[in-house]
């Protein structure tokens, strides 16, 4: 979302969204992205009329772009273990579980998530 909304540091995300890096994520990110769009409208950061175009861009990242989605269910048991042991929400733990399972780097704008990932043995990049 940082990339699409051109938030501070959005250029730092681009290298991680190339086909050369074959990025993957949990399908929960679609829901989280839609939620961010709604919250951005409510907070006055974007206009309601911008949402359809921004969501279309999100869809393109998953359907035609480099970002492959993986089902959350595939990582749910591990995510629940991480959430309980680290006292974090399951939806955050899903991203850690997926990165750990895939031996991938977790790219996030969430400092707490990055720190937790590192504690779980997952390399994290804060953008």
Q: What's a quick, concise take on this entry?
A:
The chain has helices at residues 2-5, 28-42, 51-63, 76-86, 90-101, 111-119, and strands at residues 24-26, 68-70, 106-108, 124-126.
Can you offer a commentary on this structure?
With 127 residues, the chain is mainly alpha-helical. The chain has a single domain, classed as Rossmann fold (3-Layer(aba) Sandwich). The protein is built from six helices and four strands; from the N terminus they run H-E-H-H-E-H-H-E-H-E. Helix 2 packs antiparallel against helix 3 and helix 4 crosses helix 5 (90-101). The longest helix has 15 residues, at 28-42. The protein is globular.
Instruction: Sketch the topology as an H/E string, one letter per element.
Output: HEHHEHHEHE
Which geometry do the CA atoms define? Answer: globular
Report the top-level CATH class: Alpha Beta
Radius of gyration, in angstroms, nearest whole number = 15 Å
Mean pLDDT score, rounded? Answer: 89
Say how many strands there are.
4
Question: At CATH's second level, what is the architecture?
Answer: 3-Layer(aba) Sandwich
Count of the domains: 1
Distance between the termini: 11 Å
Report the CATH topology name.
Answer: Rossmann fold
What's the total helix number? 6
Going by helix content, strand content and strand pairing, the class is mainly alpha
Low-confidence stretches are none
Spatial strand sequence of the major β-sheet: 1-2
Beta content: 5-15%
Please give the share of residues in helix: 40-55%
Largest sheet: 2 strands, parallel
Under CATH, the homologous superfamily reads 5'-nuclease
């Amino acid at each position: 979302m940082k990339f699409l909304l051109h938030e501070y540091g959005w250029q730092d995300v681009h290298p991680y969204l190339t086909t050369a890096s074959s990025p993957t994520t949990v399908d929960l990110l679609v829901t989280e992205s839609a939620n961010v769009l709604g919250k951005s409208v409510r907070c006055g950061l974007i206009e309601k009329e911008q949402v359809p175009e921004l969501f279309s861009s999100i869809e393109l990242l998953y359907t035609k772009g480099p970002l492959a989605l993986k089902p959350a269910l595939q990582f749910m048991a591990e995510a629940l273990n991480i959430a309980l042991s680290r006292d974090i929400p399951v939806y955050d733990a899903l991203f850690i579980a997926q990165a750990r399972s895939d031996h991938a780097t977790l790219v996030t704008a969430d400092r707490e998530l990055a720190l937790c990932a590192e504690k779980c043995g997952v390399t994290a990049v804060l953008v």
